[in-house]
Amino acid sequence: MVTPDGARTSIAEEFRLIKRPLIEKAFSQKGKPIHHGNLIMVASSLPGEGKTFCAVNLAISMAMELDHTVLLVDADVARPSVPRYLQIRAESEASEIGLMDVLLDDNLDLADAMLKTNIDKLTLLRAGRSHHRATELLASQSMIALLSEIADRYPDRLIIFDSPPLLLTSEARVLASQMGQIVLVVEAESTTQHAVKEVLHQLKACQNVNLIYNKAKTLSNGDYYGRYYG
C-alpha cells in the first residue's frame, strides 16, 4: 500500500506516475477543459482485478499533493470494501451512512455523510445502505446534482470513485456516463481481450479512459517477481 508518509517505495512511485496525467487533465489550463475532470472513476471488467486496491492507493497518493484534497467514494454499493482497505470500522449506525443514504434522504446533507480518515486531506464517502433500485438512484437527477456539488464545491478537490465491475452491473455503466475521467484496471494474464474490448465499447462515449495493467510480472536484477495489487 501507498503510505501517507511519502516513503519512496516502488508502489508509491508507480502511483505517482499514474496520478500525474489524471491531475493534469483534471485541472488543465491548456486547451478545452474536461467537464468534471476531477471526477475520476476506477473500474474493472470483472471482480478480483484489483480496482479497489488501485482506487485506494490512487486516492492516498493524490492526497499527498500539496495543492489538492481528495474525496474517495465507495460506489460499489453491492460489495463495498473501501473502509476495509483503510481499516475503518463503523462505530455506530450513523457512521455507516453514505452515498445511497444521501440520495434517498433529501434532508441528509452530503457533509453529514463524509468521514474524515487518519490521512491528511483524504475524506471518505461510504456506499451507505444497499438498495434494490441502486441503478435508478445513480441515474437520477439527485445523483447528477450531487456529482455537480461534489465536483464544484471545492475547486482543488479530486474525487475518486471505486465503482462496481462494468461487465456485472448496470450501476457502473450509469456512473461512468457522469465521470470526467475513467481508470480501467486490467488484470495481467487473466482479463481476456474480449472482456477489455467489451468494456471499452461500453465506455466509447467517455473521452478520457486510462488503463492500469495490474498484477504484472516485471524484471528486477534479472529475476521475475509477481507484483500483486489488490
From TrEMBL:
Enzyme class, UniProt record, top EC level: transferase
Catalytic activity: L-tyrosyl-[protein] + ATP = O-phospho-L-tyrosyl-[protein] + ADP + H(+)
GO molecular function: protein tyrosine kinase activity
EC code(s) of this entry: 2.7.10.2
AAA domain span: 39-208
PANTHER family (UniProt xref): FERRIC ENTEROBACTIN TRANSPORT PROTEIN FEPE, TYROSINE-PROTEIN KINASE
Record-given protein name: non-specific protein-tyrosine kinase
